[in-house]
Design brief:
Blueprint (H helix, E strand, L loop, with lengths): L1 E4 L16 H17 L1 H15 L4 E7 L5 E7 L21 H9 L6 H7 L3 E3 L6 H4 L15 E3 L6 H8 L5 H21 L4 H16 L10
Parallel strand pairs: 1-2, 4-5
Antiparallel strand pairs: 2-3
Helix pairs in contact: 1-4
Length: 224
């Protein structure tokens, strides 16, 4: 039922931890728990679609860097072909992505299982993108501060995911481009958000995320 990626890599130096405020943790639970119940029929339907069109496993599990550099297991619907290998970043036209997976990615539906990560406390509703250990240990030192914070289901960077993915297409070394060009852009946006990550601002970001995903069918700027 599950596929897990445990790609080995150097150990990330453990940064100090920035604790989530109690108000934001309450918001995570208050929204994630009912959403999981409300979306249960959709999650079951998506699991069946993935299994029928691409076989098992339905869920993709991968180790990611959480708050304070601690690792956790992130859950997504599987969008890539089984046993596919390649760069640790995915472009908008990546051939490893299945037809169903491409649609799920574009609509953000592959990320819905991460509501469980939010409920567990591995992630929060809004924060930095959860990174893989393989890429995190290669971050420029001046950007390692981002791993002090709890990663988010959405965030200012996630609202640019389709544009970022399109920039990776055709790069001879997409991981290097990601680390040298996109990571500085991402952490700058994260820093701006985290300076004022209040409950009202998190709710505004959640609403913006919903609008961003609803606009996906009409966005021709690149895959998500």
């Amino acid at each position: 039922m599950h596929m897990i990626d445990r790609s080995p890599g150097p150990v990330l130096p453990t940064p100090s931890r920035v604790r989530l405020t109690r108000a934001r943790r309450v918001l995570d639970v208050v929204l994630a728990a009912p959403l999981l119940l409300l979306l249960a029929p959709l999650l079951l339907l998506l699991a069946v679609v993935v299994a029928v069109t691409g076989g098992r496993p339905v869920l993709f599990r991968q180790r990611r860097i959480g708050e304070g550099g601690a690792e956790f297991t992130l859950y997504k619907f599987r969008t890539m072909r089984r046993d596919s290998t390649g760069p640790g970043v995915t472009g908008g036209r990546d051939v490893r992505v299945t037809g169903t997976g491409r649609l799920l990615r574009r609509l953000g539906l592959d990320e819905l299982p991460q509501l469980w990560n939010v409920l567990r406390g591995d992630m929060t509703l809004a924060g930095p993108r959860p990174e893989t250990p393989h890429l995190a240990c290669r971050y420029p030192p001046e950007h390692l501060w981002v791993f002090r914070h709890r990663p988010g289901l959405t965030g200012p960077c996630q609202l640019r995911s389709r544009a970022y993915a399109a920039q990776l297409d055709g790069r001879p070394d997409p991981e290097q481009y990601y680390l040298t060009v996109l990571v500085p852009q991402r952490t700058a946006l994260d820093a701006e958000f985290l300076r004022r990550a209040t409950v009202p601002n998190v709710l505004r970001l959640v609403v913006r995320t919903i609008l961003y995903l609803l606009a996906a069918p009409w966005d021709r700027g690149g895959g998500s």
